[in-house]
Amino acid sequence: MAHAVDACVHCGFCLPACPTYTLLGDEMDSPRGRIVLMKEVLEGTLPLADAAPHLDRCLGCQGCVTACPSGVPYGELITAFRGWSEPQRQRSALDRGKRWAILRALPAPRLFSLAARVGQFAKPLAPALPAALRAPLDLLPERVPALHSSPKVTRARGQQRGRVAFLVGCAQQALAPNFNAATLRVLAQNGIEVVVPDGQGCCGAAALHTGARAEALSLVRANLSAFDPGEYDAILSNAAGCGAGLKEYPAVLHGEPDEPQARAFAAKVMDVSEYLFQLLQAGDLAPPLPASRPLQVAYHDACHLAHAQGVRAAPRALLRFIPGVSVLEVPEGDLCCGSAGTYNLEQPELASQLGARKASHILSVQPDLIASGNIGCHTQIQSHVRRARSRVPVMHTVEVLDLAYRGEL
Amino acid sequence: MRDSGKRANTTAHSPLSTDLLRRLAPRQVLTSLAERRNYRYDAIQFGETPLAVVLPENTADVVVAVKAARAAGVPIVGRGAASGLSGGAAPLRESLVISFTRMTGLRIDPVRREAHAQAGVVTLAVSDAARPHGLIYPPDPASFRTSTIGGNLAENAGGPMCFKYGVSGDYVKGLEVVDAHGEVHTLTRDAYDLAGLLIGSEGTLGLITEAALRLLPPPRFTRTLMAHFPEVGACAEAVSQAIAAGAVPSKLEFMDRACTNAVEDYLVLGLPRGAEAVLLVDTDGDDLETVEEERALVEQACVAAGGTVRRAGTDAEAAALWQARRSVSPALGRIRPQRMNEDIAVPRSALPEVVREIRALGDASPFPVVQFGHIGDGNLHPNILFDPRQDDAAAVHHLAHQIALVALRHGGVLSGEHGIGSMKRDFMTDALDPVTLDVLRDVKRTLDPADLLNPGKVLP
Predict the structure, then answer these.
(1) Which terminal CB of chain A, N or C, has fewer other CB atoms within 10 Å?
(2) DSSP bridge pairs for A73
(3) What span, in angstroms and rounded, lies between the C-alpha atoms of A327 and A321?
(4) How many angstroms separate the CA atoms of B162 and B157, rounded?
């Protein structure tokens, strides 16, 4: 951690890239300020409890990592710090209960789906509930769909060109089951066989980023034994947060005996848009049918695609590949939408301000459709766009491609 | 604030903070240790932890804060985004820091071609707001996405555009200033140019709360080129020759090999890693033929000096090159964690010798010494890179002094744009004669008799 802290020259280039600094305008809630706070806590010149509120407000969006010329690995820094400091935190019983519930329900799709259904009935009561309970209810879709379970193997259509493993994710199976269904269809359409290995589970990112290191480690190791990188051309995720989490495995297991295994695994991990873009570049992507009318698609960069994985061009190119589709850039596009994993549950007020800001920027370009590549962003943006009384559809990039292949776009 | 019940008792209950909390809203006064520790640095230096921090939302709040500090006898340090490079915003003693980041009022008057910006407006935001009216605010310090108008004016910041268009102070039509007594003044540039006196005074004579800024229509055409050279002096010769031949580029920027490699590590643009010097040039204007002609003049001078020239093909390519240039200073953190940043400005004719002499000083020292800067107007940023945990601070300071003397020996000055702050204060006696220094001290005593405004800065 010390090296990462020292790399910061406190130039302040990160300030405008930080959502909380943008909202609050104070130094302690900026990346530069948080680095100073972490350093001083580690050096023992500042009590953890003093620094904690400001560190808790960090979304972990890594916008600052993109903006940082001196190469501070802020994402690794805050994750390591949260892991180190969590055991020393003194949290209230309510707080502990909430964290326990989130970290338990999120990786368990059946439990999550059940909770979402119960929540759906409680939705009308939301205004009367305390904020801690209101936040998750606000984010629930109007109708919670049936849980989708992906087949163990989806055969390629036509000549088989590749074979990939697929991480099905957690919450999105319950909240947006069509993400996975569309992903399997689009891959199959392009001659790719998709395997959903048994024994896979949550990627562990939510646990890791909230400081629950022991839980994270067991999830990471479960996935390492479920996926044998030697068997597949790639290991795909269609959720930016999960994909970034999988790519982090070598850092999580740094210095552990299974670090080499984590490296071999992470080397194969790709976002579904990266993989499809490779096919596109090789001239191997099947041409979709044209949209039924010219469509202006606002593409939202998920932080864990753009900042954490550096994937920006691929999803845009895929959307533009559909005849009739043009891609609109969203003002302030580098700034997080406020979803950020479990952030909208832990810091509902700031998350909601960021969500409203994002929705208004997206709607300002008057799109026919909004696309993104992450379930968290999807839920957050959908909820805030609806609150702004807009009916513009919000979709995963792969859902847009899937509709085009079926001639339904 | 879930840990609030268990928080350590690190809040400073000074008479000043009690007074401030009574007069201002709680969100405007920061007193906890975590908060105060965060307001003690700029982009170079860490100073004393302030006694309290005020985040004013308007000029009246600034007046309240100044009067409270004055009553308590506590020094006052103004602060924008703290991206400065001379220690200007870092308190040297226990102080009240007034951070202007929430004073972001901005109004564009397209008919008068003016922007009225409060001190905390981010520099780039002025151009962003003016552009729909067909206007821009030219000053473009490297940190302009972060830095604030108040800080830019306090340090009289420059930027690549200032070779052709002038520095921040050249765009000021008037200032609103709170003085050391808490009185509000509107300063213009008439009679005694008091606005000019405040510009570059680094918060030692008054606090700038608002500025009326001159806006310009942007040039219709801009052309960008990059040249690289096998030796630093050759790059400087090309610059002198191009300007002597009649070219007036809008930007003429230079970075040496170490700088190029540091930004290439960050942005991966395909910059020439092996070149000893890279030159970035914009020519601009409303007449395309002249713009192209000027670019051709620069190209010829570069080739004659042994350089290799590449034109930017697209706007995106040009934008990427300029992002690279803006990132140089922070990217140096990849080489060593700390840098002693100089800001010398020398006559253009002396440039080849100056860059070669500084290069030689660097080669003979144990520290990496890198050079970059606004070479068009002779403004160079030699940086000594070091690690404070291992390296001898006195040796760094000695080398910095040697570099400053190179500039002075060739008829140059110590600061082109970053200000003197605390970093270069000691070299002021080399730069100015004693009589002039006495006049500056008289000015300071007249405007701030109790020495409350940013004490220890600028004047030795």
Answers:
(1) N
(2) none
(3) 10
(4) 9
**Between A74-85 and A31-43, two packed helices, what is the crossing angle to 10 degrees?**
40
B97-121 in b/e burial notation, b at 16+ Cβ within 10 A? bbbbbbbbebebeeeebbbbbbbbb
Place of tokens 């609050």: A24
Within 13 A of A294's CA, how many CA atoms are on the CB side? 3
Q: Which of A22, A50, A64, A316 to mutate to test the interface with B (most CBs of B within 10 A)?
A: A50
* Beta-carbon contacts of residue A356 (< 8 Å; ≥ 6 apart): A384, A387, A388
> Which of B 9-38 lie inside 8 A of A, CB atoms?
10, 30, 32-35, 37-38
For B36, nearest residue in chain A (alpha carbons): A28
Residue A130: closest CA among A99, A94, A92: A94
Counts for chain B of helices (H) and strands (E), in that order:
16, 18
**Nearest-Cα residue of chain B relative to residue A16:** B146
Q: Which of B3, B6, B146 faces A13 most closely, judged by CB atoms?
A: B146
Amino acid B97 reads V
Q: Model ipTM?
A: 0.89
Q: Are strands B383-386 and B338-341 parallel, antiparallel or unpaired?
A: antiparallel
DSSP H or E stretch at residue B428: helix B428-431
Q: Is B49 on the interface with A (CB under 8 A)?
A: no
- Which residues of chain A are within 8 Å of residue B100 when distances are taken between CB atoms? none
Please check whether residue A43 touches B, CB under 8 A.
no
Tell me, yes or no, if A5 comes closer than 8 A to chain B by beta carbon. no
B3 touches chain A (CB under 8 A): yes
Please indicate if any CB of chain B lies within 8 Å of the CB of A7. yes
Pick among A14, A70, A364 to test the B interface (most B CBs inside 10 A): A70
- Look up residue A285 and give its two tokens: 């992507």
Q: Which residue has the tokens 């580690």?
A: A42
CB-based contact B3 A53, cutoff 8 Å: yes
Mind telling me how many Å the CA of A336 is from chain B's nearest CA?
18
Q: How far is residue A350's CA from residue A352's CA, in Å, rounded to a whole number? A: 5
Asked if A10 lies within 8 A of B102 by C-beta distance, the reply is no
Question: How many C-beta atoms lie closer than 10 Å to residue A273's C-beta?
Answer: 29
B43, two tokens = 């982009």
Predicted TM-score (pTM) of the model is 0.90
The sign of the torsion formed by the CA atoms of A90, A94, A97, A101 equals negative
Q: What are the chain B neighbours of A72 within 8 Å (beta carbons)?
A: 333
Q: Which chain B residue lies closest to A26 (C-alpha atoms)?
A: B101
DSSP state of B41: B
Which SS3 state, helix, strand or coil, does residue B185 take? Answer: strand
Q: pLDDT tens track of chain A, all 409 residues?
A: 666 778 898 999 999 999 999 999 999 999 999 999 999 999 999 999 999 999 999 999 999 999 999 999 999 899 889 989 988 888 888 777 777 777 776 677 766 666 666 666 666 666 666 665 666 666 666 666 666 678 899 999 989 999 999 999 887 888 888 999 999 999 999 999 999 999 998 999 888 888 888 889 999 999 999 999 999 999 999 999 999 999 999 999 999 999 999 999 999 999 999 999 999 999 999 999 999 999 999 999 999 999 999 999 999 999 999 999 999 999 999 999 999 878 888 888 999 999 999 999 999 999 999 999 999 999 999 999 999 999 999 999 999 999 999 999 9
The angle, 0 to 180 degrees and rounded to 10, between the axes of the packed helices B232-244 and B351-364 is 170
